[in-house]
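Supplementary Note 3. Input sequence used for the single-chain structure prediction.
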Amino acid sequence: MSLIEAVVLGIVQGITEFLPISSTAHLRIAPALLGWDDPGAAYSAVIQLGTVAAVIIYFWKDLVRLAIAFFAGLRARQPFGTVEAKLAWFVIVGSIPAGVLGFVLKDFIENQFRSLYIISSSLIGLAILLFIAERVASHRRTLAEMTWRDGVIIGFWQALALVPGSSRSGSTITGGLFQGLKREDAARYSFLLSVPITAAAGLFELKHLLEATQKPQTVALVVGTVVSFIAGMAAIAGLLKFLRTRTNMVFVVYRIALGVTLLGMLQTGRLQPATGVVVHVQQAPPKTTD
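The predicted structure, written as discrete structure tokens, is reproduced below.
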């Protein structure tokens, strides 16, 4: 992997991790369209550590407040006594479904699930769900009004993102909207919920990637991770500002357009579903006779 590839993939990861358009899908699509090899699920998971760092730094005060409230509640034997303590528990509980299913389905996620047919279908499918959520949701509740039921349900929505193309932020934001959360609050909870699961996945894959016989150079991993951190910081700030005054409809349209385009390229043989290789069709030379 060249440094240019590492930079491009880092930008793609950083931006698309937080926008509801699927980072996994774009990390498969971008190399395919540029004629590069698929970086693989392990590389994708490792450079997600950059976006995890972006969330931690951007929401540092919130995370410290949640951690203090969590341990204070345990010491006082009132673990759910404050809003911050309950929100900390919601993040923990909401991370369990994706963690368990991610471990069980690891082989499928890294192989069969990476088919571009699955990715394009997921892009369109979640776009439809996000569209419905935008239309039927009340958009009234805040994080302070969340309940255990909300935490568990949104946690299962996050597990949906194990299917590439669904988008972790897209699925959790959609789940939050269906639970009546305001758009910005659904996005904030999505970002907080991303810390445990993406950090665990990144560290888990980093161990296996470092032990592998064939792996990207260390410099490519470092560059991709650093660039994803910078792009992630910008994406978080931009999305929160955007959702204060606008809906998610632009992402709905983008997901459907991208999904349909991918299906068209797959059907015409322009892309290979398993490898993502761009196919250049050449006519066979005419036969000659002696």
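The two ends are 47 Å apart (CA to CA). The mean pLDDT is 86.
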